């Protein structure tokens, strides 16, 4: 184990100097792109993703039906269908690795994001239309799915598509994987790649300020008794992320009012909320 | 592209109303599985799982090949599954649907990535010869809960499987036929089982297990846990869907653990029965002891 | 280019076409024929890459290019044994001439991928785009030589081009400009080892040289840029917008690169002695060919309301005539190839001193390379 867990128990500091419940620097921008209906750029530590939302728009004929890998909303003819595309850039990881679009891991992420959105967006307001979400991974350093979900939420807000609440996500891990009775194991928040490789972790996505879990993905072996601790820390992390994202959205709103991009009636709503 | 028939509005309303009152169409309790039948074929490594009208067949085969150059000490282990038009007209060959992708990913995570099979034990001569174990999963009939039944079938088939015995003398590798030497079981480390919970109701507060196809169409979300009997989670996936309370997830994890123990006992019992059935000579009696895990 | 059909009616197309064919042409956004739209660009945005760049065009399209380099063992195409001998004899002769050895550099050391959202990566359009860009880059044979380390090792360069925005117009110029900037900002670690030993590199990133040496002692070619030029009637338009592309008679992708020559002391004068070279040129199938033709009002029964079954035959003939002879003000998709004179004038306009290419290169030079 290159990650020396013994040092952690001594100083209670992680390899990048964070404490167990510290998030990495989260930086985000919305409306980064003029041509799209909604767009965002999000950094969680060194994980950098961009999201572009197009739509709700008329479905392009012949484009979607045959596309393998783009997750298609089924069984909801009345509402808008959501198509999610994740492109992982070849230069995003330390060693260049080319991932085809038919990579199952990426397809799974696409389906996850698509289903999380489908349950949260008010798609019934846009019948017979398509919302296309394109995600670009520019740099990855852990918590990839979480970053993708957060970026999607911001871009969908920017696109002005009605939704119940923010879906925010982050990862939570545990300092020890085995030995059920090991009480010394601490949960950790927001893991980077190095920690993800060494420790069991899960990605959790919650709805708004509630404890409701929209997405929960765990791919590593971990004792079932650890789950609760990790989940609690993860849900708490999601709330922190939500506060940060909310701040970003409000800041952007204020800026738009100053620039006169928003009409007066809209202005009232925002300043009330503030 | 053919589409799956959707349940009609009245069917939908009726079923959901019944579920919200705690009733299921087949008069099961909400947390009750359908009768599960597990049988083994005449050959080693064939497992047939029947769960209500869902039927899944897993077949294991092994051959000697050259290992991948980047991992010379590991054997090759792969699980292939295909949902063909035989299951439902909406499945097409060579066009993986969402169900198929998720099923393949889930089996991969549950069995392969969790290290249930010791792939290092499949290595014969480092960098030159190794066993390639392949599980072919055939879905014969689908009536909901494909994930749990497929996972059970794959695990049971792999534990039932015997590969030909080998010996290495110097540089020569000898593979013995079943007549020469008794085939040996795979080096199996732990048996993970999937349990899927489906959520119903306005806030996803009603939990069902082992849903039929109809119920599956109407669910608002689902979560799949993979655990072994030691209480180790191998994988959790709640891929979107309606958000549910975190406490409910924890409860589900505990239920999944109990279910996983049940599955373990079932597979152990069936394997023991099968071993007894095959026990013609004295040699098999010894081998059957290995199955008692 | 099939996915970017413009939803313009034949009448709109005809109007656009005729106003663009005027002299001087009247463009929908009021630009002159040779004017580029403003763009924003930045480089060095991704610390995890050897070089990166991001460019946003005025129409909102945006691209990101990342360059990654890996060391790879050179495999001799003629087989191992021969190669060993070759190395021996070369080293016996006092290391040989490096320039000579560099001739072994090959274009396949550069790998290029283009990702366009919503399109498969093996889509014909995407592959064509990647090949266009690759061709321009490798055309002069100088580029691969930069990847040469020694006789046994070379750099393998991965260029990943991602279009972030939906493909609104033909993204070729955008991708090419982004690639140009990314390559200019690309740095490779400084080589510490000598000769044919296993390469050793300096850890200090600050000391790493740029793939394309910076100004000053800059001699040799610079990365190419590819411009899209369209001809509408007799006018030649640079940086066509989506609508202009939809009525283009012909579209041409022209790649050129700047070659800097070592100048003497007298070059202290302000004269920017930039020498432009045409690297490659390809015709691009303009989407205008797929547009539906207009119907002249004489042939429009619905409008005139004088449909008479007896005169159907006559009208059919008329219809045929309409298809054969273009009528003033009625849109008809362009057919056939491009006249040579048009090609000639396009190339002249591109390579003209102080012309469009100069303007673009000046603009790109202003981008701060970090």
TrEMBL record, chain A:
Query: Gene Ontology cellular component?
Result: cytoplasmic exosome (RNase complex); nuclear exosome (RNase complex); nucleolus
- An example Pfam family from this entry, by short name, is RNase_PH
- Extract the InterPro entries matched here: ExoRNase_PH_dom1 (IPR001247), ExoRNase_PH_dom2_sf (IPR036345), PNPase/RNase_PH_dom_sf (IPR027408), Ribosomal_Su5_D2-typ_SF (IPR020568), RNase_PH (IPR050080)
Q: Which domain of life is it from?
A: Eukaryota
Q: Which molecular function term from Gene Ontology is one that the record holds?
A: RNA binding
Biological process per Gene Ontology, one example term: poly(A)-dependent snoRNA 3'-end processing
All copies of the Exoribonuclease phosphorolytic domain together span: 23-162
Give the family, as the similarity comment puts it. Answer: Belongs to the RNase PH family.
Name the record gives this protein? Exoribonuclease phosphorolytic domain-containing protein
Automatic annotation (TrEMBL), chain B:
Its family?
A: Belongs to the RNase PH family.
Q: Which residues form the Exoribonuclease phosphorolytic domain?
A: 32-164, 191-258
Question: Can you name one GO molecular function term for this protein?
Answer: mRNA 3'-UTR AU-rich region binding
Quote a single Gene Ontology cellular component term: nuclear exosome (RNase complex)
The source organism is Trichoderma asperellum (strain ATCC 204424 / CBS 433.97 / NBRC 101777)
* Listed name of the protein: Exosome complex component RRP45
Give a GO biological-process term: U4 snRNA 3'-end processing
Q: Where in the cell is it found?
A: Cytoplasm; Nucleus, Nucleolus
Q: Which SUPFAM superfamilies match?
A: Ribonuclease PH domain 2-like, Ribosomal protein S5 domain 2-like
- Specify where it is mainly localized: cytoplasm
Q: Which domain of life is it from?
A: Eukaryota
Q: Which InterPro entries match?
A: ExoRNase_PH_dom1, ExoRNase_PH_dom2, ExoRNase_PH_dom2_sf, Exosome_comp_Rrp42_subfam, PNPase/RNase_PH_dom_sf, Ribosomal_Su5_D2-typ_SF, Rrp45
Keyword terms, alphabetized: Cytoplasm, Exosome, Nucleus, RNA-binding, rRNA processing
Which Pfam families does UniProt cross-reference here? RNase_PH, RNase_PH_C
From TrEMBL, chain C:
Q: Does the keyword Lyase apply?
A: no
Record has Cytoplasm as a keyword: yes
Q: Which GO terms describe its molecular function?
A: mRNA 3'-UTR AU-rich region binding
Q: What are the alphabetically sorted keywords of the record? A: Cytoplasm, Exosome
Q: Which InterPro entries match?
A: Exosome_comp_Rrp42_subfam, PNPase/RNase_PH_dom_sf, Ribosomal_Su5_D2-typ_SF
Name where it mostly resides.
Answer: cytoplasm
- Residues of the region (Disordered) are 282-328
Gene3D superfamilies in UniProt? GHMP Kinase, N-terminal domain
Which family does this protein fall into?
A: Belongs to the RNase PH family.
Identification of the protein by name: Ribosomal RNA-processing protein 42
Source species: Trichoderma asperellum (strain ATCC 204424 / CBS 433.97 / NBRC 101777)
């Amino acid at each position: 184990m290159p990650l020396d867990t013994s040092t952690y128990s001594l100083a209670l500091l992680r390899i990048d100097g964070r404490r167990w419940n510290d998030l990495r620097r989260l930086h985000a921008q919305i409306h980064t792109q003029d041509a799209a209906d909604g767009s965002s750029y999000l950094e969680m530590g060194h994980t950098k993703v961009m999201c572009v939302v197009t739509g709700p728009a008329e479905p392009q004929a012949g484009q979607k039906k045959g596309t393998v890998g783009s997750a298609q909303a089924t069984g909801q003819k009345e509402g808008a269908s959501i198509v999610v595309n994740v492109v992982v850039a070849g230069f995003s990881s330390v060693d260049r690795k080319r991932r085809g679009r038919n990579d199952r891991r990426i397809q799974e992420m696409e389906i996850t994001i698509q289903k999380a959105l489908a349950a949260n967006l008010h798609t019934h307001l846009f019948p017979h239309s398509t919302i296309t979400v394109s995600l670009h991974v520019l740099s990855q350093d852990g918590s990839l799915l979480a970053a993708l979900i957060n970026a999607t939420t911001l871009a969908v807000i920017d696109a002005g598509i009605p939704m119940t609440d923010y879906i925010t996500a982050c990862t939570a891990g545990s300092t020890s994987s085995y030995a059920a009775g090991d009480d010394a194991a601490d949960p950790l928040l927001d893991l980077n790649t190095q920690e993800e490789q060494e420790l069991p972790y899960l990605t959790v996505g919650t709805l708004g300020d509630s404890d409701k879990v929209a997405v929960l993905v765990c791919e590593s072996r971990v004792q079932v008794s650890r789950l609760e601790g990790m989940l609690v820390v993860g849900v708490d992390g999601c709330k922190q992320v939500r506060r940060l994202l909310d701040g970003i959205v409000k800041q952007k709103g204020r800026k738009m009012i100053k620039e006169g991009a928003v009409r007066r009636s809209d202005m009232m709503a925002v300043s009330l909320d503030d | 592209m053919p589409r799956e028939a959707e349940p009609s509005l009245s069917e939908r309303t009726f079923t959901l109303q019944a579920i919200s009152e705690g009733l299921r169409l087949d008069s099961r309790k909400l947390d009750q599985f359908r009768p599960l039948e597990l049988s083994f074929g005449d050959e080693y490594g064939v497992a047939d799982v029947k769960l209500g009208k869902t039927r899944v067949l897993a077949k294991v085969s092994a051959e000697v090949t050259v290992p991948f150059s980047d991992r010379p000490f590991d054997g090759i282990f792969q699980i292939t599954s295909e949902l063909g038009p035989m299951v439902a007209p909406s499945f097409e060959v060579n066009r993986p649907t969402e169900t198929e992708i998720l099923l393949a990913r889930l089996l991969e995570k549950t069995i392969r990535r969790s290290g249930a099979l010791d792939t290092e034990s499949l290595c014969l001569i480092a960098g030159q010869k190794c066993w390639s174990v392949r599980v072919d999963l055939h879905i014969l009939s689908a009536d909901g809960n494909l994930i749990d039944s497929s996972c059970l079938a794959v695990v049971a088939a792999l534990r039932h499987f015997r590969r030909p015995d080998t010996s290495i003398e110097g540089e020569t590798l000898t593979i013995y036929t079943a007549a020469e030497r008794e085939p040996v079981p795979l080096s199996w480390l732990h048996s993970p089982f999937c349990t899927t919970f489906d959520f119903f109701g306005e806030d996803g507060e009603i939990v069902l297990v082992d849903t039929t196809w109809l119920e599956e169409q109407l669910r608002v979300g689902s979560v799949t846990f993979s655990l072994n009997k030691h209480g180790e989670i191998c994988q959790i996936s709640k891929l979107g869907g309606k958000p549910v309370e975190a406490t409910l997830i924890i409860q589900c994890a505990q239920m999944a653990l109990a279910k996983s123990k049940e599955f373990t006992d079932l597979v152990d019992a069936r394997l023991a029965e099968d071993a007894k059935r095959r026990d013609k000579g004295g040699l098999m009696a010894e081998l059957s002891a290995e199955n008692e895990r | 280019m099939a996915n970017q059909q413009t939803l313009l009616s034949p009448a709109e197309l005809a109007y656009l076409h005729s106003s663009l064919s005027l002299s001087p042409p009247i463009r929908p956004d009021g630009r002159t024929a040779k004017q580029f739209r403003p763009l924003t660009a930045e480089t060095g945005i991704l610390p995890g890459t050897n070089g990166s760049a991001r460019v946003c065009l005025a129409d909102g399209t945006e691209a990101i290019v990342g360059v990654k380099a890996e060391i790879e063992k050179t495999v001799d195409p003629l087989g191992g044994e021969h190669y060993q001998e070759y190395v021996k004899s070369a080293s016996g002769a006092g290391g040989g001439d490096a320039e000579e050895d560099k001739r072994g550099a090959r274009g396949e050391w550069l790998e290029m991928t283009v990702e366009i959202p919503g399109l498969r990566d093996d889509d014909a359009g995407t592959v064509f785009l990647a090949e266009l860009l690759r061709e321009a880059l490798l055309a002069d044979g100088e580029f691969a030589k930069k990847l040469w380390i020694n006789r046994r090792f070379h750099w393998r360069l991965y260029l990943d081009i991602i279009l972030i925005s939906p493909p609104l117009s033909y993204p070729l110029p955008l991708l090419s400009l982004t690639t140009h900037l990314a390559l200019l900002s690309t740095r490779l670690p400084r080589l510490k080892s000598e000769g044919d030993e296993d390469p050793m590199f300096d850890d200090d990133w600050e000391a790493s040289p740029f793939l394309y040496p910076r100004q000053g002692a800059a001699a040799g070619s610079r990365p190419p840029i590819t411009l899209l030029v369209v001809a509408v009637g007799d006018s030649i338009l640079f940086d066509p917008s989506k609508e202009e592309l939809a009525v283009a008679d012909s579209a041409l992708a022209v790649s050129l690169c700047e070659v800097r020559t070592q100048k003497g002391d007298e070059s202290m004068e302000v004269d920017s002695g930039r020498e432009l070279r045409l690297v490659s040129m390809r015709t691009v199938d303009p989407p205008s060919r797929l547009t539906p033709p207009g119907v002249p009002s004489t042939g429009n029964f619905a409008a005139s309301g004088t449909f008479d079954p007896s005169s159907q035959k006559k009208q059919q003939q008329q219809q045929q005539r309409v298809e054969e002879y273009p009528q003033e003000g009625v849109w008809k998709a362009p057919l056939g190839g491009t006249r040579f004179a048009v090609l000639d004038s396009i190339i002249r306009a591109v390579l003209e001193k102080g012309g469009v290419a100069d303007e673009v290169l000046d603009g790109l030079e202003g981008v701060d390379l970090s």
